[in-house]
Amino acid sequence: MRFRISHRLDRDSLPCINAPIIIYNPRVDKNVALTPFAKAQAAVLRAVKPLPAVRLPLEQAFGFVLREHIRADRPLPPFNRSAMDGYAVRHADLAKGLRRFRCVGTLEAGAAWRGAVRPGECLKIMTGAPVPPGLDAVEQVEKSISDGPHVELFTDAPERWQHIHRMGADCKKGERLIAAGETLTPSRVAVAAAVGAARVAVTRAVRVTVVASGSELVGVAAAPAPYQIRDSNSRFLMARFFEMPWAAASFGGVIPDDPRALRRALAAALKRSDMVIVTGGVSMGERDHIPEVLKQCGVQNRLYKSAIRPGKPVWFGVKGAKAVFGLPGNPVSVAATFREFVLPALRKMAGCTAVLPSVLRLPLAAPAKKKHALREFRVSRS
Question: pTM value?
Fold first, then answer.
């Protein structure tokens, strides 16, 4: 049976380590109802709200999400602007066949022409300079010969407004240029600067703490014993946050499978964070303490287990306006649940308009069989 995979994970972005073996506790009910994927995603998004807005200088707002529209404070361009170095003339003179003009001066960008340019006269003009009233065509300097005070132009089919970027051609005064909910990319920062938006309202940074749980984990620089593995999940997550200027992420450490140690670490993370992400310890093993510890910390569970693979044991809860995610310890599960649950929640808290990840539909390279009813995520190469 062929089926279409509508969600992809980039193999190159995943940590390549062996996942810990999960020993299931028979005392735990394995028949916890699985929430369908779409309902699980919707439950997460219903539970989170955009954070408050702050006003920042434009140069500090790159990458943040706008909370107000950016509108043009004047037409752009604000005047008829020469698009070429050349000679500004009246189109009516060209239409009559006139090609030899008396040049009355030179106008550079950043200056205004104070005199008059009468019929039969022209003005030498630089790129970016304002074209004086009454002149409505510019001929390139390459198509001219200067003869003392006179200039002869060589043009066969002159058009009105040729080589002139007309006033308001890009936008009108008051026109919305950037919508609230858009991220301030470099090009949008340039647009905001062009219309004088020196300070902008953006969602304040989402404060995130990442905690790795598991007695089998050691730091990246450590020499692991044969029964230990290096913590790659937190490195993966922290690297993802480097891509998000609107998120301020910190690492809460690697915590062993000890309820008291976990409670101390997660309580501290909750105090300083808008979102806490903990990896590992959310399944049904005897040492999977995260759900109970989070309950003791006052976190109300809103989602436990979704009908997906990998990532079925995903856990989500809230404490007031704070969001808490418990992600399964398998690295591919971390990547999948981060993309499908954590990232949309982060985007909503940051004030983004579009929060769900994009879907790219491509044909499979080979037939794939699916023997279960779960929404399945598979690693792909990009």
Answer: 0.82
